[in-house]
Amino acid sequence: MIEIKNIEKSFGDTEVLKGVSAIFETGKTNLIIGQSGSGKTVLLKSLLGIHTPEVGTISFDGRIYSQLSADEKRELRTEIGMVFQGSALFDSMTVAENVGFPLKMFTNNSKSIIEDRVDFVLKRVNLVDAHTKFPAEISGGMQKRVAIARAIVNNPKYLFCDEPNSGLDPNTAILIDNLIKEITEEYNITTVINTHDMNSVMEIGEKIIFLKNGLKEWEGTKEEIFRTDNQAIVDFVYSSNLFKKVREAYLIG
Known about the structure:
Distance between the termini: 35 Å
Strand content: 15-25%
Structural class: alpha/beta
Shape: globular
Order of helices and strands: EEEHEEHEHHHEHEHEEHHH
Strand order of the largest sheet: 6-7-8-3-9-10
């Protein structure tokens, strides 16, 4: 579980996060949504330790990040997996080398142990024949699965995903959503996803934090979005006619 309390973050005179508090639950897909400029990217980077809030605390299963020593922060980082928006694979490395990179960086495992673990996670994301291929030789969807494999290769407690469906076609995006959700439940990970994809919200939104102008405007589940009378999130989620019709059908039925 990750808990944030009263997080405030500014850049110069601009307040980006204004007292945001939330709990991201273990074993669930926790989504951060909001328009551009709402603060969701800054919040994600604050959770990752890239930004330091001026006010508030971030705790990982009771460990307050700002109170950890340098060694304890390094140890915590080994418990974190990250899926970047553009996959961020190393072009000069094969798929297997990309996935094994965190193990070489953060463990003293032997070559055979690393290879076995790489084989295991690539099978888990349904990539069994891609070991020797380079990122440029595989599709965008396959690159994203490689990124997920790399993120979970070190058995993380916490998984962060920044716009994991960016640039993917709708069918592939659904496959990636379902894969992230399955892995979250299977390994009981605290997963936090920064997304603007409303299909992701409706597919895997077990816990949703909606930010607007740096404030937590709404919090709930994908089912509760259908019933909410919060006009801000209704306008955001149901900006398309398709989602408006889905909500109307839900309320009538």
